Amino acid sequence: MKKILSLAAIVLSLSACSGQQTAETAAPVTVKSLAGDVAITATMPADAKATYPSRGTALARDFVHMPPLIPHRDSYKITAKKNGCLTCHSTEKAARMKATPVDKSHVKADGTFDDKYYFCVQCHVAQADNKQAIVENTHTN
Ligand code: HEC
Ligand code: HEC
């Protein structure tokens, strides 16, 4: 029994030694980029921050019944529960928020908002100047 125990002790101490190699004996790790030894010289500036027209200087509509451009940011949340645009533009709140109320066409005969017009940015786009190249457009009115 004593023999078996001491044999077990030897096996245990041996297996403990055969763990990880120590740092001194490990080969140095050399990582190389697949692109080779090329220094990165090209950097790209961040996109310009969008600016919006100041009050009363937005572009006028170009043609009759054109959805007017949004003269401010257009990132107000529109979710199934809440429409961030209507908090200022609904018929009831617009005067208090000093905003233009939604067009009559957006309102049903009973005076409630017509949900067909719920997703405002489907038709209205922000007039933002963020210095990005403008996509060619051949539209004429
Ligand atoms: C915090 C209040 C507020 C919120 C929220 C808001 N607006 Fe406005 N919006 C205004 C005000 C105030 C004006 C008028 C600015 C001016 O006279 O230049 C305006 C102007 C506009 C106009 C131009 C109206 C016209 O007759 O020329 C449009 C279109 C518009 N907003 C759409 C939107 C849309 C779409 C959203 C949601 C993405 C939105 N607004 C969210 C306050 C708001
Ligand atoms: C299906 C397209 C469409 C959607 C969606 C839409 N609009 Fe419009 N909106 C228009 C058009 C078109 C006009 C111009 C109406 C005209 O002059 O006959 C307009 C006009 C307006 C005006 C100017 C009203 C005025 O008296 O000068 C405001 C403000 C406005 N919309 C806000 C909104 C808001 C806020 C939403 C979302 C809750 C919205 N619109 C959704 C098409 C849309």
From TrEMBL:
Record-linked InterPro entries: Multihaem_cyt_sf, NapB
Keyword Nucleus: no
Alphabetical list of Pfam families matching this protein: NapB
Domain of life where this protein originates: Bacteria
Keyword set, alphabetical order: Electron transport, Heme, Iron, Metal-binding, Periplasm, Signal, Transport
Signal peptide coordinates: 1-23
PROSITE patterns, A to Z: PROKAR_LIPOPROTEIN
Record's subcellular location: Periplasm
Stored Gene3D superfamilies: Flavocytochrome C3, Chain A
Membership in a protein family: Belongs to the NapB family.
Name of the molecule in the record: Periplasmic nitrate reductase, electron transfer subunit
